[in-house]
Design goal:
Chain lengths: ~230, ~230
DNA sequence: CGTCCATTTGAGGTGGATCAACCCTAGTGG
DNA sequence: CCACTAGGGTTGATCCACCTCAAATGGACG
């Protein structure tokens, strides 16, 4: 596939350098590479650049170093469902089968660490702990997907936005402020809504004093319990 | 948890007998139990009986022998999202973590084969092929969940029903007729629709000659290509 | 300071939900 | 063997949450 070829060439020519495989054990990727001495490579993508396409061979496994990534599926007429947002330290692109089942794009300028899928397979074939780690990472993705099916199938718009805000608050609000990397359309395509409906829900929460804007993508949660009550 | 205790007692008292672990390799469960000499036990549930609850400890892994199973999540006000239907030979209840994240119920009278989760864990800890098989089974569940997120987030009612019919046709129409084990409400809770909307979509497909009813749950597909065109 | 998107807001439309009968049909009992 | 019943399924009428289309506003960046 053309895109895959392009991506691979890009990796070979633009690679910034090998990095040492020493990471804290709490780190998902380091837990694998550290154990088996795999070498990870860093690579960068610009905003909206494709990292891999749907149904492309799964040649690499990725970890976000900085930036943010969306993985998604498309219908033939362009309707898009974002399956997950990947933030710093998150692993994505891990497959048990031969191909990626969702495409991946950088939401903003993004740097990733990557290892060859074959290396991981070999490591897993000889090291049961690596194999178990790969399984548990896929199981975490499944857990998220199951929660998200409940949201997409049965929650109303306000409940979806509340769930989204609490998820992002948990994942990226180290400080009090939540700096969302993605636009309203991305949020809508993640939540199965239109961007206008997302905007209206956020405006209503702002009017109710549940949150405050410091810019459209800079949100401060003021009443987390109110959101939790919506996230039933 | 009370239910778990009851389930376990039921298994001990109502068990129908140990069965030999010899299954064809193509069989998901046999691929594991055959390799490592695990003993599987058979057990039966009546229509609508709970097999395990959400967040219960994952003590067993199950395979449908006959019948059908739904796995689902509930919101506190009773809204239900069915994550998957499990038909004969399907494995369900396989977890990497400690608990079941969806509840499971028999849709009709159902017999399952089950093995202790601890046995599988031990087998996986010593046998890399078993570990890989567990991973790939979880990855298959993830693949299904990702497809289903696209359906729930972005397809309209008719497209959802068409996708459902093609999935069931693939999975249970050995003969020309498709004998659905589940009611319209189950289908609706799987597709994120109401039972009335499911019924209307099926009636419309019947009017268009795309399918024929031989009873509400006995469906014959007449124009599969028409359904595939809807399943974009 | 101007341009270009992203976002917000408004107005109106609609697909699917809700509410309500009604109709099958499988199972039950006489 | 047939009448009765209950639960599942269908169909109709109406409603409304969210979508669509449109325009105004805001903010980032050269």
């Amino acid at each position: 596939m053309l895109t895959q070829t392009l991506n691979t060439q890009a990796i070979n020519t633009q690679v910034r350098g090998k990095i040492a495989p020493a990471h804290p054990v709490s780190d998902q990727f380091g837990a694998i590479t550290g154990h088996v001495g795999l070498v990870a490579t860093e690579f960068s993508y610009r905003k909206d650049e494709e990292i891999y396409g749907e149904d492309e061979p799964a040649e690499y496994v990725y970890q976000v170093v900085s930036g943010a990534v969306r993985t998604y599926k498309l219908l033939s007429d362009g309707r898009r469902q974002i399956g997950a947002f990947h933030l710093p330290d998150d692993v994505f692109g891990l497959e048990s089968g031969a191909t990626h089942r969702l495409a991946a794009e950088a939401i903003i300028d993004t740097t990733v660490r990557l290892v060859k899928r074959r290396s991981l397979d070999q490591a897993a074939a000889t090291n049961v702990q690596v194999a178990h780690k790969l399984w548990s990472m896929t199981a975490m993705d499944l857990r998220h997907a199951e929660e998200h099916m409940l949201l997409l199938g049965r929650k109303n718009a306000m409940e979806r936005v509340a769930t989204f805000l609490l998820e992002m608050d948990r994942r990226l609000a180290i400080t009090g402020i939540m700096a969302l990397p993605m636009c309203r359309r991305d949020i809508g395509d993640y939540l199965g809504l239109t961007l206008e409906t997302v905007s209206r829900a956020l405006s209503q929460l702002n009017d109710e004093g549940v949150l405050e804007f410091a810019g459209a993508r800079q949100i401060v949660l003021r009443k987390r319990q109110h959101l939790r009550d919506l996230d039933i």
